[in-house]
Amino acid sequence: MRFNLRSAARYLAAFAVLNSAAFTESKAQTPKTYTSSEILLGLKKLNVLGSVLYIAAHPDDENTRLIAYLANERLLETGYLSCTRGDGGQNLIGPELREGLGVIRTQELLAARRTDGGQQFFTRANDFGFSKTPEETFRIWDKEQVLADMVWVIRQRRPDVLITRFPTDGRGGHGHHTASAILAAEAFDAAGDPKRFPEQLKYVQAWQPKRLFWNSGSFFVKPGENMDGYLKLDAGGYNPLLGQSYGEIAARSRSNHRSQGFGSAATRGEALEYFQPLKGTPAKTDLFEGIDQTWKRVSGGTAIENAVGELIRKYDASNPSASVAGLFKLNELVKQLLQAKQTPSKTPDVGATREQKMILIEKSREVQKLIAACLGLSITATAAEPLVVAGQKMSVAIVVLNRSQKEITLKRVSGFMTMFDTVMQKPLLTGKAISFTAGLTINKKVGTSQPYWLRLPSSVGMYQLPDSVLVAEIMSKSMSTSASSNGVPQKPSIQVSRNFLKPTRQELIGMPENESNASVLASMEVEGQQYSLYVPVLYKHTDPVLGELYQPLAVVPPVMVNLPPARSYVFADNKPKTVPVTLRAGRAGVSGNLALALPAGWKSEPATVPFTLANKDQELTVDFQVQPSATAASGHSELRATATVEGQKYSRGIQPIVYPHIPTQFLFPEAVSPLVKVDLKRRGQNVAYLMGAGDEVPDALRQIGYNVTMVNPLELTAANLKKFDALVVGIRAYNTVDRLKSQQPEILKYIEQGGNVIVQYVVARGTVLPEIGPYPMKLSSDRVTVEDAPVTFLKPQHPLLNFPNKITEQDFKGWVQEQGLYYPSSWDPKYQTIISSGDPGEKPKESAILVADYGKGHYIYTGLSLFRELPAGVPGAFRLITNMISYGKEKVQ
């Protein structure tokens, strides 16, 4: 079986290794600079060839302290494989759910790995929400496909040891947790079996890890459990080169999970980690016992080990550039071994030989990074704008700076993997930048910057990947200097060239994010040695508060078609509704026609609208009046907005995701909104809404005719609330709105005087006050995860089930992700229970809705997942929330 250099190109193109070129890793971050201590740590890591892969289910499941310890103390290549991207969770920092939340949590994981020194990988599993058992999980995930993805990452990364976060016996609580452990055990065996998933062997070889462990902890250990059979290590040490303990690094890493509210305090001192052996060769004292982590793993590697040792001994922290000559010699040794292994011979190129090639490529990549770090070399390529249309020319500002005393000649700068001659040949003088602009064009075949796992429709349990993704085909059109004083020719002679990076579906698996849409190659001569460096083209801007920020260059369609986010159009009668469609130009001079696609019998006025957008980023909003079919039955359908330009149809909008702790991301959602025809009556008109962690419920209430006023916590007084028919409290408000501690008496006073309060789910841990209602209740993590779990009406005649809408079993059909969450486990008898339901095999839960009279008014707590169902356009959810807001008004006709 051949060694596939194309697969290796994701880490370091083989031709680049042989010509002393380096790939940068960062695709959308502030360019990395290295301290002297970090360089020394990198030098030491060159002499460690071991690898470990940590496996769990979600973002935040990983043990950041252990990852920090393994990556920075043991100097191992340390990866975290998360089965999912966390799409099914809740969002503490904003309104994004599902795909948007998955993108946020992906970026939070990448930020965590940049902090703790690990690498990040994923499978195609879709986080469909809480699951109570692995059996349920595997009914929704394609188990064989997730296993194949896990095997692929293992074969690709070749870890010596696998570590799971969770046990296989269910103590992890979440069905996804247990499923990840079961899959890890199966993947341990399958990765080394060439008969399993043989299609992968076109790119990688079978690989058998030496051991599999479960990383236990105090929250898993049963009372009185004997831990004698566990290995243990102290991961709480201090790294003087980094100036931090691993507990401190771990806290900073974990605190990147802001969407989950996981800001963590640092720990210092001893921190024991326990490991239960599960598979593989036994070990008595250490996870890596008997595993060679030295250059003896590579035939001829002793010379490299000695060279690295000499570099470490001679390293001068005050003058890192003194190590550059030694690094070039080291890379020459690596190159010689790599070339020797690629020479055809009578001996088949199999087994360890291929493993050695991958090790050599990885180490060459590390050497190249260290050369740039020792030189203090800074190369940036920044686009003038954040968004570009494929086929359109963009201006890129390139700045090259040598901050060492070494003699460097800048020979050429070109588009990604293009080797045209710029006849530059200019010295990079210490501290004096060479700056110029380049005109680059991304080929028309390159698609939008939609995350690769969102380009095709997904199932509930799995993301579907395209056959391949053309992520770069760059054509460099022209160059000119920004300042002639830099000595760069005003109009250098260039030859246009093209190159491709087109990962196949197999090669996409595991990748945390898209490859860069555009990169620049700078070719230099460093004291007689040839050296090249790739850098991604990014967009840079300066925020007045946060300072200099970088984000990925995004490829957009010529026109973007945006509908209001997370909005359902709900028709309780046959009156038309306004549907605003906002067009945004991806380039100047876009003309076409805009129309809505509607179900049979539905109409829009106007039917078609011509448009012209003269300038890039210009926006135009068109209001359509949508008239439902007079004969349409209650139910759910959808509308789609489509713009036709030059015969091509476009129906994707643009959704920026902007938070200060991650690079700005862009999604390109389909311009589709639910249409809901529902038989609905309501009482009351004015609703006050207190936002908690963020949701789309207020807009859903407006859709059914309520006047919704967003109130801030200081406005929560009985006098102010008196003018409202109800106060609706958003999800997790009692976890996130600290002011509720002081305003709760006013809310109770409002209820006592005749008000109506509906509180949506509250997480059991971390409430801002002990009691969130007028009477005691104990919150829990109980939930009903089966969306269509049968519902029993405990009090069929209760007004909440009958006024103003008759609630039936049909109203609980078609729900998404889960029926409800964080139900109280106990409550005061003054609360009435209204419905009960439960997951298969479990006792039904009765606290999905608790209703209490208090004075002249009413209090309702509900764990029903209305925050998901209303934006999804579930008719029954609208009828339920209407009855809750109308509660107590049945006698006021």
Distance between the termini: 80 Å
CATH topology of the largest domain: Rossmann fold
How many beta-strand runs?
A: 45
The major β-sheet equals:
11 strands, mixed
Q: How many structural domains are formed by the residues?
A: 5
CATH superfamily of the largest domain: LmbE-like
Low-confidence stretches: 1-26, 341-352, 417-421, 473-500
Round the Cα radius of gyration to an integer and report it.
30 Å
Q: What is the top-level CATH class of the largest domain?
A: Alpha Beta
CATH architecture of the largest domain: 3-Layer(aba) Sandwich
Mean pLDDT: 89
Instruction: Give the helix proportion (percent range).
Output: 10-25%
Percent strand = 25-35%
Structural class: alpha/beta
Protein name: N-acetylglucosaminyl deacetylase, LmbE family
Domain Alpha-galactosidase NEW3: 591-645
Organism: Hymenobacter arizonensis
Pfam families: NPCBM_assoc, PIG-L
Molecular structure report:
- This protein is of the alpha/beta class.
- It folds into 5 domains: 1-49 and 294-374, no CATH class; 50-292, 3-Layer(aba) Sandwich (Rossmann fold); 376-556, no CATH class; 559-677, Immunoglobulin-like (Sandwich); 686-886, 3-Layer(aba) Sandwich (Rossmann fold), CATH 3.40.50.880.
- The protein is built from 19 helices and 45 strands.
- The strands form 10 sheets. Strands 1, 11, 13, 14, 15, 16, 17, 18, 19, 20 and 21 form an 11-stranded mixed sheet that branches. Strands 4-3-2-5-6-10-7 form a 7-stranded mixed sheet, with helices on both faces.
- The protein is globular.
